[in-house]
Specification:
Elements: H1 3-21, E1 30-34, E2 41-44, E3 49-53, H2 54-59, H3 62-81, H4 90-99, H5 112-119, H6 124-139, H7 145-168, E4 178-186, H8 191-203, E5 207-215, E6 220-229, H9 231-258, H10 266-282, E7 290-294, E8 297-300, H11 301-322, H12 337-349, H13 358-361
Parallel strand pairs: 1-3
Antiparallel strand pairs: 2-3, 4-6, 5-6, 7-8
């Protein structure tokens, strides 16, 4: 089957899905895949057609294609419910809100500049903070346990302080919340991937969702983790996700070798590993009223915890826009206690740092995404 026919069929499916999740009734349009790079997509009232650029589909992630597609659906909504209303007037803005279009794509037309702004560079203050964090991650490679721990805690301190300063300076514009899909290219997510997402939600100023995303190159839908938060939070959370995922897989391989190729118990091992990682992060909040990073640097525990809650509230507005009918998954498994405690033991020894081999493993550097 021609790949463009597959894309058109998928966009028809997405149209129905968006109408369902947003509780909107729109007629089924004709979907046309067109050539040309200047116009990314457009709605034609006369023949009830949404045209989408082939170049857009080939060059941008599917979630960006969907934002632009929803922009054109908003034009369809205006056409069907408001008749001859102004093209990008108040009726259009209302339609964008009803259909869950991100504010970055709710303006007059969609172009490459808007996409670049949505996916683009970080504020200078964030870049400065991340450069310092990256240096600390490099120090975290030290074989000296206390030095590695101190570097990890200092990096965490900088992240907390940056976010506290941002909120104190009223830089918490909710329209600046973004999202990032962590693609797995698999039909099901592994236990460790789910565990890491839950950990990131609790410690790294992001909300996390497990979703399905289409890949136009393969004409398949796959599971993905979705991070929601400020751009700088997404950069850090993505880095930590890939670091922990890579590390946990290597540790599981070692565990299997030492236990005669044991294949069962991976879920328990993953759970134990992440409990150990969580234990490292919680150490900063125990036995002190402040978050300690070294002898002279601390942050109020109450302020940091309140900040986490505030970020979750802020992020949840975007989560509700993206996934208005989100359902919780429930899982159960038989606990392998040996694998669990071995995983926890390993997790307690791990401090998030920049792996020596990160250039070869594909782990994303903080400022080289």
């Amino acid at each position: 089957m021609d790949i463009e026919v597959c894309w058109a069929k998928q966009l028809q499916k997405e149209h129905g899905r968006i109408c369902f999740t947003q509780s909107v009734s729109l007629s089924r349009p004709v979907i046309s895949i067109v050539s040309g790079k200047k116009r990314l997509a457009y709605w034609s009232t006369g023949n009830k057609t949404i045209s989408v650029s082939r170049d857009l589909i080939e060059s941008r992630p599917w979630e960006i294609v969907l934002e632009i597609f929803k922009h054109e659906m908003a034009h369809q909504y205006v056409s069907e419910y408001f008749g001859n209303a102004e093209s990008h007037g108040q009726a259009f803005k209302s339609a964008c809100k009803i259909l869950g279009v991100h504010p970055a794509f709710s303006g007059s037309g969609c172009n490459q500049e808007q996409i670049a702004a949505f996916m683009g560079t970080l504020p200078e203050t964030a870049q400065k903070m991340l450069r310092r964090v990256e240096k600390l991650l490099a120090l975290g490679q030290s074989n000296n346990e206390s030095e590695a721990q101190a570097a990890s805690r200092k990096a965490s301190y900088l992240l907390n302080k940056y976010n506290l300063d941002r909120f104190a300076g009223n830089e918490n514009d909710a329209s600046d919340i973004r999202y990032l899909y962590l693609r797995t290219n698999k039909k099901r997510m592994e236990s460790i991937e789910k565990q890491i997402l839950g950990f990131l939600k609790d410690y790294y100023f992001v909300s996390c969702v497990i979703a399905t995303i289409y890949e136009p190159q393969t004409d398949e839908e796959y599971k993905a983790g979705v991070l929601i938060g400020k751009k700088e939070a997404l950069v850090v959370a993505e880095y930590v996700y890939r670091f922990l995922l890579n590390t946990s897989k290597e540790l599981w391989k070692d565990f299997r070798k030492k236990h005669s190729g044991q294949r069962t118990g991976k879920v328990a091992f993953d759970l134990g590993f992440m409990k150990g990682i969580r234990s490292n992060h919680e150490m900063m909040f125990k036995e002190h009223d402040d978050v300690k990073t070294n002898a002279d640097t601390s942050l109020p525990v109450a302020a940091v915890k309140a900040l986490r809650v505030t970020c979750q509230v802020e992020n949840n507005f975007e989560k509700k826009r993206l996934f208005p009918r989100l359902r919780k998954e429930r899982t159960s498994f038989r606990m392998d206690k040996n694998a669990f405690f071995k995983g926890m033991e390993q997790g307690k020894r791990i401090h998030i740092n920049r792996p020596v081999e990160h250039k070869n493993t594909g782990i994303t550097a903080l400022l080289n995404r």
